[in-house]
Amino acid sequence: MDQYALLVAATLNAGTVLAIAALGLLINEKAGVVNLGAEGIMLCAAIAGFAAVVHTGSDWIGFAAGMGAGALLAAIFGLLAIWLNTNQYATGLALSLFGAGFSAFVGIGYVQEKLPERMQFAVPWLQDIPLAGPALFRQHPMVYFTIALVLWLVWFLYRSRTGLVLRSVGESPESAHALGYPVRRIRLAAVVAGGALCGLAGAYISVIYTPLWVQGMVAGKGWIALALTTFATWRPGRVLLGAYLFGGVTMLQFHFQATGTEVPSQFLTMLPYLATIVVLALISRNPAWIRVNMPASLGKPFYPGS
């Protein structure tokens, strides 16, 4: 039973990384912007957060540094793609390549660094519940923050006036512009907010999930987060469930190793990416369903003068 409780706990921890990043990308895409630079943003945020904790000893300053790095890179992407109307896909790919190289360069001096002793978190009284306690109530506060963020996003996108305006910009920027809304500024704000969340996910990886710095340590999680938005049909609740699903697939390799199951390690390592391909292939079989849920102006530039 303890092994299954640990598997659930590890699944929530791994899913949190994907959920935070995917929710940031969801905000971008609800405004009609596709940011393929998530991987690069997360890598730069990971080294920024790790370096901040090394020098200050504070995890929360590390999270703030990661969010700041993510927001800055996203703002640069937004200025290029929204104001200068560069191709969103090409600009995002360039950002990913830049982030991979820049983080590797900056992180050379931090490869051997170690973080201070990690604090153990637990919910009083609930942590002692058999099975459920170790599985659900001994998590880092960021796990619970992510669940709260999903609930807030559901309210924000579907119940608030600001969320309605954001969605209208993603559906029909021409109509929103005709009504007097500053489409480009709204899109830029969404991109910066999404970048900050991707940055938070990157910092969480290097500070909490695997508290160290290694070149390329994000290991494709930014791309999986991008796939998650499509998998979830742009719904925050489904993003969270999908993130836990992929987190569980990621943790299965360690569970199999712990139980002595004879499965080639190479196959276990590729499980999360294989699951991503299978899910996207299944979803792609019904393009009409995707079109109904996808923001109508996703990836399309907006020209105010036209």
Automatic annotation (TrEMBL):
<dbReference type="InterPro" id="IPR001851">
    <property type="entry name" value="ABC_transp_permease"/>
</dbReference>
<feature type="transmembrane region" description="Helical">
    <location>
        <begin position="33"/>
        <end position="54"/>
    </location>
</feature>
<feature type="transmembrane region" description="Helical">
    <location>
        <begin position="213"/>
        <end position="232"/>
    </location>
</feature>
<feature type="transmembrane region" description="Helical">
    <location>
        <begin position="91"/>
        <end position="111"/>
    </location>
</feature>
<feature type="transmembrane region" description="Helical">
    <location>
        <begin position="188"/>
        <end position="207"/>
    </location>
</feature>
<keyword id="KW-1133">Transmembrane helix</keyword>
<keyword id="KW-0472">Membrane</keyword>
<protein>
    <submittedName>
        <fullName>ABC transporter permease</fullName>
    </submittedName>
</protein>
<feature type="transmembrane region" description="Helical">
    <location>
        <begin position="264"/>
        <end position="284"/>
    </location>
</feature>
<feature type="transmembrane region" description="Helical">
    <location>
        <begin position="60"/>
        <end position="84"/>
    </location>
</feature>
<keyword id="KW-0812">Transmembrane</keyword>
<dbReference type="Pfam" id="PF02653">
    <property type="entry name" value="BPD_transp_2"/>
</dbReference>
<dbReference type="GO" id="GO:0022857">
    <property type="term" value="F:transmembrane transporter activity"/>
</dbReference>
<feature type="transmembrane region" description="Helical">
    <location>
        <begin position="239"/>
        <end position="258"/>
    </location>
</feature>
<feature type="transmembrane region" description="Helical">
    <location>
        <begin position="141"/>
        <end position="158"/>
    </location>
</feature>
<feature type="transmembrane region" description="Helical">
    <location>
        <begin position="6"/>
        <end position="26"/>
    </location>
</feature>
<dbReference type="GO" id="GO:0005886">
    <property type="term" value="C:plasma membrane"/>
</dbReference>
<keyword id="KW-1003">Cell membrane</keyword>
